[in-house]
Amino acid sequence: MTDQPGIDSIVVDKKFHTLCESNRYRCNWTDFSKPGVSGVVKWLCEGSRATIPKQEELDHALPVINPSFDKYVSEETTHGICVTWLGHACVLVQIDGINILTDPVFSSKCGPRFGFQVGHTRYREVPCSIGKLPHIDAVVISHNHYDHLDYNSVCQLAERFPDLKWFVPMGVKAFMESCQCKNVEECEWWQGRLHKNVKFTFVPAQHWSKRGLMDDNMSLWGGWCIKGSQRNFYFSGDTGYYGELFKEIGDKLGPFDLAAIPIGAYCPRWFMCHHHIDPEEALKVHEDVKATRSIGIHWGTFNLSSEPYLEPRDKVKELQIKKIAEILLIKVITENLQTEKCEGREKIQEWARKKIKELQNEKKEDLQTEEKTKEWLHKKVGELQIENIEKHQKIEGFLKANIQELKREKIEQLQNEKIDEWLKRKIEEFQKTNTIELLDGGNFFTINIGETKFIKSLQ
User: Fold this and answer.
1) Consecutive H or E run containing 234
2) Which pTM value belongs to this model?
3) Who's near 98: CB < 8 A, 6+ residues apart?
4) E strands, 61-208, where?
5) Would you say 366 and 376 are in contact if contact means Cβ atoms under 8 Å apart?
6) SS3 call for 199
7) CA dist list (Å): 405 to 331, 399, 425
8) 373-382 pLDDT, tens per residue?
């Protein structure tokens, strides 16, 4: 085992140290092993991957945007973070004036080469070529799987940007040098390196590595924390969920202005659960590492698993809506706590959640009073995603103005479908007259491939 307490003044739980036995790494906090041949065969027999629709449907449901990198040369970016999703686990991030790529894969296939490329084919094309990228200062690699470390992409980046700095897990440097990469920094967990006044720290993840027939776990895997003078970014890499680990990362290196967290390739769960998080776990990671905003990655590019191709995005949206609805209802209920004897934040939240369950169990036809109708409306509005917590008062005013119309339509006598129709109509009216940026449900958002988001003043 590598003796590394106190590296870069980061003192962490011993079980999260790098563990290497007989030249093979493993996670010290769990005894899970990578999927075996029998598991792969069982999965294949079940029908291994989701169905991908025809091009026309793909273009409508998951468009690929021709990226504009103008913001990457704007002085405004010194006051925030610019992020462009380039597909799968590759994002281009500008933090403190430097441009960083994560796990760059620009090839049409990801897989081994036998004189020609084999493996999984992109069903969504790369949004731009390496030749059209802005200047890249650094690249971080999470692990050596083919959908994260692509030989052709690395060679092309090394050729175009000879002085490019590469940050890689321990055991990957030899591969990088075979691609003509010159400036390669190899790290174990919790080791940090400084480049252009930005600190890159390699952190643990629950995963595994393999690239050849006999090299199982002979290189390390993990995520990267990238801290500038004003901004802090977290890239998790591929990982299963282990709450203590992510809380440790958040406590030692957070909070983060922005995180890039995988939300796809999680089905079937019996096969994927130990090394790929699902959307619900992704939101837990977002909270555990203390991220202000997070972007969902690792979906919508390669068909690697069994869930429907849009399900990761839809589930994130649904889960965020439920979270917002709960926060909103707690806010509404706690405003009327004068009649209740609740002391302290935790007791109030416990009481409020109990009231939420009571409210959710009530029949719609029993909503007779304006106050009950207002509470129910707040719940439905949360479910239909027009609520941004910081815009609470403005939206609440809109709802109050429409409660009477709702009552005139005798909502207690309407079926749920009719109620949803009414609410959707009101939401459309609201969105036409208000310029609120809705980030797919709140602080955890998704964007189209090639789309750029400029996130300003997050902390």
Assistant:
1) strand 232-235
2) 0.78
3) 137, 138, 195, 196, 198, 228
4) 80-85, 91-95, 98-102, 109-110, 120-121, 138-140, 165-169, 183-187, 192-195, 198-203
5) no
6) strand
7) 24, 10, 12
8) 555 555 555 5
